[in-house]
Amino acid sequence: MKNDINGRRDFIKNSGLILSLMALKSNFLLANEDGIMGDELLKKLSTINDTKIEPLLLKQISDPSSRWDGGVKDIYEVPHAHATMNFVIKLCSAYSSPFSRFYLSDKLKEAVTKAMKCIVKVQHEDGTIDLHSTNFHSTPDTAFFVNYLSPVYVTLKNLNQARLGYLISCFEIFLKKASKCLLIGGAHTANHRWVICSALARINSFFPSPALIQRINVWLNEGIDLDPDGQYSERSVGDYSPACNEMFITMGHLMNRNDLLEVARKNLDMTLYYIQPGGEVLTDASGRQDSDKISDVAGYYYSYLYFSHRDKNPVYVAVCDFMENNLRHKLTRFIPYLLENQSLRNKRVSAIQFPDRYFKRFKYSGVFRIRQSNFDVSIIENNPTFLSLIKGSAVLQSLRLGSTFFGSRGQFTAENAEVNNNQIILTKSVKHGYFQPFPKEKIIGDGVYSKMPREQRTLSEPQVINYKITITTLDQKIKIAIEVTGTLHVLVSLEMNFRKGGKLSGVISDQNRSDSYFLKEGWGTYTKDDSVITFGPGKIEHQWGTMRGMHEKPHGNTVYINGHTPFKHILEIN
Fold first, then answer.
1. Roughly how many angstroms between the first and final C-alpha of the chain, as a whole number?
2. How far apart are CA 540 and CA 538, in angstroms?
3. What's this model's pTM, rounded to 2 decimal places?
């Protein structure tokens, strides 16, 4: 199959049918429901946000002798700047919204003023703040603060109320001081560069300075880490990709740089194919901490909303409609953006459904995405989870394969992938053995083993294990042919991990571990609500589930099919 990832809104030919965006139908995207636009949306979000205000007020610290007077503690009773920033954003969202019952509340004004005084007080002289859990004197975390507080600052200024003068001055003190570190500070990760650049663009829009723009260009000169698929290098679909999009939109908008807007736009086009039933997004291939958590598309709301207006893009409108109807409670953090830029509340063009039937390969990300309405399959290269599947509300969170071949070398991760029509073939070969004495002429003589590395020893008694997994996609069904060959009598375990909350049947319990089961023969089922995943046939030549060398058993209900090399088995899931 030709990989035609390049280009916008391209559709792969599958089974002789070219999928046209205009023709796509959806069983879950609620095409007949319009988004909740304009003031009605702001009203609904404000109502949700209002429920959080009173509990938050109770968390504010009132102790004039404390460094954290006016600040907020987290659930671990630790006061810190980030909890205080979130307090400011939520309270200002209520204070500034005409649809909030706290609109222009003196009580909120006083609480926010105390909180901002606290943030200014704990800000270091070099302009930085601390992320108390890991980063100290952190320029990147200060940049996040600037980005998230800036819409609040703009909105408060636009209220044009003299009584907000002192509060606004606290924002300005923080922002001006933050520019000190942003002009010279460094980053930890790829996304930090764009967060810093966006913060510099924000401050430049308030207090113009050529030095701020120059610093942005220094970072941009490194080149933008967007691959031809449209994915950022961290592949963090749940966390940092949506954050990067917001940063490039901010820079593009404030600096009149269409090339930077195009970066976010390209990622959003790709993300259309990462959306799973119910609005979740595939995170298993992430290179960051969201790889083992459940995330959804709500984090992309501002980005899709911005371009749905700027480009009059009907597909992006459909994504916004879906979030507003199904994930509304997660959109309250975007209230400051709706207040800052009222054009985002204007009437949108009519929606066209976003894709829910496709066979798509993202070669640079090592991801295949296969969608047939509410039947959703992800196949991932170079990842212990080589397949995940969603059928309605039933979720096969991960399919993994391992063996007892020389410890961690036995965990299968696909090194190569080939595509043949509706088949995807994943392979990997591993060679290992034992090592001869260190070359005599290179021996130092102190006997320290680490100074005599294996790379300089001769491998002997070589052993080999070969994995081949052939995945055939059919109509709402997949067939997985597994072959593990090479060295004989190696234990093999195929692991199916189902998300907690459903019910398994047709399996036997593992006597050694809880939430662990074996499929001895026949077929098993996993049922969640009205959705059913059927899998089988079973095979059990031993009852060791998570074997030595395999990754630890995931959270959830795990089913194993086990054997020895040479191991050949065909698993069907439908």
1. 24
2. 7
3. 0.90
